Amino acid sequence: MDRIGPISSEELFSTSHLSGSPNERSKYENTNFRLSDIALIMQKAEVFKAWDEEVGHAIAMATTSRYFDKGILYCTISSSAVRSRLFFVLENVRRSINRRVEGAPVKKIVIR
Known about the structure:
Layout: H1 9-12, H2 22-29, H3 35-55, H4 57-62, E1 63-69, E2 72-77, H5 80-87, H6 90-100, E3 108-111
Parallel strand pairs: 2-3
Antiparallel strand pairs: 1-2
Helix pairs in contact: 3-6
């Protein structure tokens, strides 16, 4: 199928284009990924991108690790001065991230 433009998730994950027996196709259909898993991965990526954009380049570079789980964004900051500065604006950063990311997923940000 040759066309320009977005495709639906059904088309993206369809195996109807594969040739061969149904048994050959079934090995592609029985993957461990579900659309909900992919959506969560994409949401995490959006949260991390929004973090980097909201805090700016210097703080993003000082962020050595990020982890997002159950609505809590955990960020490890390498500089104590940057950590101290962040505590004053953390709630504003959380609100800004939630405006950028669909579903307002960030309930809390924990800085380490």
